[in-house]
Structures are given as C-alpha cells and as structure tokens.
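yo

u said u wanted the structure for the complex thing, so here. seqs first:
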Amino acid sequence: MAVLKVTFTKAERDKLAHVLWVLNWISVVSGVILFGLGVFLKVEIQKRQELMSNHEIDYVPHMLLTTGIVACCINFLGGKICYDCVDTTKFLRWKLVMLPYIVCTFFFTFCILVGALMCYTMHNKLDELLYIGLRNAMRYYKDTDTPGRCYLKGTVDMLQIHFQCCGNAGYRDWFHIQWISNRYLNMSSSEVMDRVRSNVDGKYLMDGVPFSCCNTYSPRPCIQHQVTNNSAHFNYDHQTDQRNLWKGGCRQALLDHYTSIMQSISLIVFLIWLFELLVLTGVRYLQTAMENLLRQGDPDSESDGWILENSLAETARYNFNIIKNLGKCYQVDDDDPNINIPTIAQQEVPPRQILLEK
Amino acid sequence: MAVLRVKFTKTKRDKLAQVLWILNWVSVVTGLVLFSLGLFLKVEINKRWELMAERDIHYIPNMLISVGLIACAINFLGGKICYDCVDTTKFLRWKLLLLPYIVCTFFFTFCILVGALMCYSMRGELEGALTEGLREAMRLYKDTDTPGRCFLKRTLDTLQMEFQCCGNAGFRDWFQIQWISNRYLDVAKKEVVDRLRSNVEGRYLLDGVPFSCCNTFSPRPCIQHQITNNSAHFNYEYQTEELNLWMKGCRQALLEYYTYIMQSIGLTVLIIWLFELSVLTGVRYLQTSLENLMRLGDPESESEGWLLENSFVETARSNFNIIKSLGKCNQIDTVQNGDPNIDVPSTAHYGPANVPTKHISQAC
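structre next:
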C-alpha cells in the first residue's frame, strides 16, 4: 500500500526532471544565502567580541556556514542527477546513488532545521555572555594604560552613544564602579581620600557617569556628575528628569539588536528548509518513477511514483530489521559453516578392516 | 576636404548600427546613473539643511537630475534610430531628423560637461553656507523651548559626535556663545551674576563645551568645563592635551565630507561625458555613411562617412552665413525694391503710353 502514489506519463516525468533541475539550482543559490547569513552573523558577533566574555556563541554562525556549503554541494549533485534523469540510459549511471542520496539529503534537512532552532535558543546564552562581558568591560573602563584593555574605554563609550544605553542594566551601575583612574585623582585632596576610604575595597566611587551616557534628546546641557544630588544643579529633580541620561541598559539594547538579527536569520533558514524538503520530495517521486519504469521495461510507458513503497509502519519495521541484521552479522553464529569448530565425534575405523576390504 | 573620413562596407555599417544600438542603451543606463547621483546629492544636502544658511546650492543636484532625465530620453531615441539604420528603408523615416538630433546631442553633451565642472566649483559656495549656518545653529543651541529651533541642540550634538568635530572652526567657538539656557542658571547666585555682568551683551559665557565635543579616544574621562584652567583638574595641561576634545572644526569636517562626495560625482559625470561623446561620434559616422549611400543609390555598396564634409573653418563659415541669412529674411530690404511682396506705391502709370480714345472707337 504505497504512500501518496502518483502516476506519471513520459511527458510528466520529463517535465518533473526539468523542473527539479531548475529547483536544484535555486537551492544552490539558497545554500549560498545560508553561507552568507553565517558570515554576516559571525562578523556581527566579532564586532562586539570585546563585550562578550567568551567565544561559546561562535557555534551558531559556524553551523550556518557549514550547512550552507554542504547544501550547495548536495543541491549541485541533485541538479546534475535530475538533468540526467530525462534520459533513461543516463539514469542507469545514477540508479545506485539515488536512494542513498535521498536518504542523506533527508537527514541533512534536519541539520538545516536544527540550525534554524539554534538561532532561537541562542538568546539565553547571549544574555549571560553579555552580562559578564559588559560587567568586565565597565570594570576595566579606567585601565586605558594597561595593554590589552586600553581600547575598552573607547569601545564602551561608542557602544553607549550608538545604542543609546548606559551601564549594564541602567546608569546606576556606574555608581558601583570606579571609572576614573587613580592617575587622574589628586590623592592629596581630602575629598578624594574621604571617598576612597568610604568603602571596603578602597575604590573612588561617585554618583557620576561617563559623558557617553548623556541623552542627546535632553533640552538641557548634560548633567553627568552629582546625578542624584538635586541641590547641586538649578531646577533639577533627578527622580522626574527622564531625558538627561539614557534610560536603558546596554545589555538589553545589545540583546534586542542581536535577537532581531537572529529572528530574521532563523525565519529565512526555516523557509529554506521548507524549500529543500519540497525539492527532496520531487526527487523522491522522480527516483521511484524511474525505477518502476525500468522494471516495466518500456521507456515510453506510464509509471508510478511514491514516497514510500509500503505504509510507514511497515517500512519502519523493515528498516529496523535490516539494521538488526547488520548488527547480527558481527556476532558468532553457530550455523555459519565458515567458522572452524573442532568436533568431538571422530569416525573410529580400525585400520585392519580397511586393509581386509582392499 | 572631409574631416576624418572613413570607408564603410555594408557589413561594417550594419555592425556599426548594432554596436551603436547597444551603446545607446548603455547610455540610457548612464543617464539613470546621472539622475540617481543628482538625487543622492540632493538628499545629502537636505539631511543637513538646518546647518546650511540660505544659499543657492540646490542648483547643482537639480542640474544633474534634469541632465540625467534628458540623457535617458535622448539616448532612448538614439537607440531607436540606430536600430532602424540597419535597414535602408527604415532609415528614410529618420533621414531628416538625424542631423538635428546629432546637433542637439552635441550641445547637450556640453551641459553634461558643465554639470561635471559645477561639481568641482561648488566648494566655495558650500563653505560660505556652512560657516553661516553653523554659527546660527550654535547661537540657537540653547533655545530648546522655542518652536522651530528645539531640534538644533540635538542636531548639533549628533553632528559633533558623528563627524568627530567641535564648534565652527574649533572648540573655542563655544567660549564665545551662551550655550546654557537661562532656564537652567540660578541667577540668584553671585557667580552666575558676575559672569553675566562680565560682558556687554549680558551673556553667560564660560570656558566649557557641550558633552558632544568629548573625544572618545581620550584615555581620561572627559573634561568639558574649565578647560583652560589647569589647576581645576589634576594632572592636566590644556595646551598640550590633544586627546580630550575633538580638535577639528565642524565646518572643516562637513566641507571635507561634501567635497569628497562632489569629487566622486564630478569624476563619474566626466567619464559619462566622454562616453556620450564617443557614442555621438559613432552616430555621426553612421548618419553620413547612410546619406552617402542614398546618394550612390546601391544599398550594398561601400560608402564614406566623415565628421565634417569640409574642413572645420569652411563649415564654420558656411554655418555662420546660414545664420546670417536666417536673420536677414526677417528684415525689410529698402536698398533694392526687389521684393514683390512689399507694397510700395510706384510712380509709374499703368498701361502703355497715352492713347486718345477717338482712335480706339474708329478702329472698332
């Protein structure tokens, strides 16, 4: 009882082969698109690698890159096969390859689907990486004289200006960090010494933020020092003034940025997956139709094509038995005549009897 | 004595016509390129209209846009003509139009050249517009409560951060402007009142700059107030400190940006002009060779093509004479009474000499 059987005339088979040839070439292009998406994502992550604590997240763009290249190769081969399928003699060349090709491509499409789903699951990992990365970047903001960290100040400033954010979760994060280096603090001043002594770690903490936190939409010149001290500035109330500094935290801003990229990419990959599945279905029909044609013998007659020869349960059981037998042939089997077993019984013929018969 | 005469066989003529057809279509594309370059320039200038004073700099993108559209139309027609020129019968349709077309296109290519040269000459006007515009914008920086001016603060801040510049010619321009609004100044304080009284116009001036002047590449947190006061900040000397604020003036930064765009556009337009000229030369050769072919009568024979039938001087003289006579036929020629259409009362009597009427009746 074949699954989804369709009868093909010769003209229909030829048309199917031509259409599949074109679709396979379109799939090669979609493989290139996958590769391009992987490259784009890798570049986007590289751009802000200083703000991410490690490179764990690189597996997503790498997956997209490899899937794209493999998709190109598979579909290139598929295009060649479909092109040859118009001619029955050329089909014989590919006859043995086709079923393994279809099975491989079927499992490969799962890789594409996994790639699409990975893009969605990256969100949580990214959140964690950004939290740690930003915290470290803010901690090393003042270390512009330390090799390897001297660019962090510029990176954080550009980030806050470009993404219109301040601090990790908000501007108050800057109040818990010493972001002014000791090189620029007058240690002999009593005010500075008071601040340094006021906390356990001996850090110079203040209710001020770097200039890059300033909101460009503010109607008044930026207040970045003594932010919580209303009396230090004329006509200022820090609880109600919403436009002085950027309100959002940079972790959320970066997360939103990457999430939108990831969602777009995974949507495109999902569509590519559906397309590949469609092409694979067509190739399966073509393969079964050509094989049935060869069985019938007449190259111009009609033939049937199907997805599975028997029902799904039967096919699954049959394949499972094959796999079981594959496993079994490595076991020791008592019925195998090739195994050399020394037998206990021996024919005892007295040598006298043999001589007498002669 | 023809200028640059070339002999064309039938196959050469056909090939020339086909090549010119393709080149004309390429020229249509270049016309579109011209149009889009003009559009791009217009958009770029409009993006910063708040920072440019009223000057007539919009004529350049408008010129490029119109030249681009006309080039598309002219080359579309040229493509059609060249396509028809392969067939001698179809050529007869265009025979009378071809010479005027070539003359018009020749003068039109001058417009393209003028467009290219204008791009290079815009710099002076632009500098003037930017100086005035930036000065006004900085003056109105503090007026965020005045409708129509409330966005100037944001525009200037974004400009200084994006182009990495400060002030008009440098950061000191901010010292001469009151950029903090009176709404945020405590006029009850003695220090504020002192500053207000220290200058004639009663403005609150200080040696400070807005936060957008801060250099992101500075190793130390930004010093934007009391910039010239070394003792106000630890380990700071403003004469040697180059990394604290952006050193470049915004006028210079914007001018460099626009000059770069203009030079690229000017170069592209020059290349397009050379291309149009070469296509026009091909069309001229095709036209003269087909006309000579008509004169010879045999559609399969060879014919000659040239740029000008006689030498340059003779052609100029003959054209000048044509223009002179065009002018003359509208004048009243009073020197000779040769024009029969002009109504001049003549002094002569009608008819032959006076014949007495007696004689005529006797003859009857």
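Residues 250-296 of chain B form the longest helix (47 residues). Strands of chain B lie at 6-8, 303-305.
cya
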